[in-house]
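Running this now, will post back.
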Amino acid sequence: YPDTSKLGYNLALVQYRAHKFRESQVMLLGLIGEGYASSEIYNLLGWCYQKQDKPKEAARALEQAIDQDPSKESNYLDLGMILASNKLFPAALVVAKENVERHTKSYYAQVMKGFIELRMEQYTDAVASYQRATELDPANPEAWRGLAVAQFAAGMTGEAVATFEKGLKQFPQDPLQYQEYAITLFKLAETGDKNVEARAVDLMRTAMAMDGSLSQPRYYLGNLALQRGKASEALQYLEAAARLDQKNSKIHYALSRAYRRLGRGEEAAKEQRLYQESKASEEKSAPGFSAVVMGK
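Update: finished.
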């Protein structure tokens, strides 16, 4: 084989894709030890560490990938993603800002920066980042959803509603546009604006009809039925939601309540245990980073 480095990397990649992360890691470290270090080798090594729940080693490997090739944006995106997924948000934001400075016309750089700012409750900055992302790629619905969510979090309720309405017209086939708008309206309803609740329900039903794999519409509709004292109806929605997303703590908590109201104590206790396990797992990582997932 003419290129030992390429052969070794490809074998390590096959191992990684087969979920043999330790074996892939050993092969990559061997290549580096033999003098075949490269940006792509360090990048894959970082993901091997991440899959083995070693965030510090993962971050260090991605930093070395950047050192090997500072012009390659995917290294910044991956490093920021790994830091954010481990709730190391300040460090992730430093990487995101550096990426934006180096790749000024990058849509993904702005989306990642906006996502991290949103998680750090820097809502005004998140609005600016997502706004810039919509300018860089107006045809991508992810940025419009992020912008509306950031606007609502920043207290810009009117602007958020307007952005969502624009998103529905611009992306009528995007189920997440309906889902995220509905979630925002449910939050408004919780503050006392019950007039928007019916619209939220309609939007959730639309999202559910468009994409049967979405768990959130079923969770919200089930939770609403539970609040209205319709435990049997709630149970149908919530059981379906749990089948679609078995690791969501909120779903297990609501399901526990529904079982308890129906006098099914044993099943309620089981769901309560699953809630506690899921909650502990969620506290270790930050879900929802779909915008910049690059196939890992």
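The mean pLDDT is 93. More later if anyone needs it.
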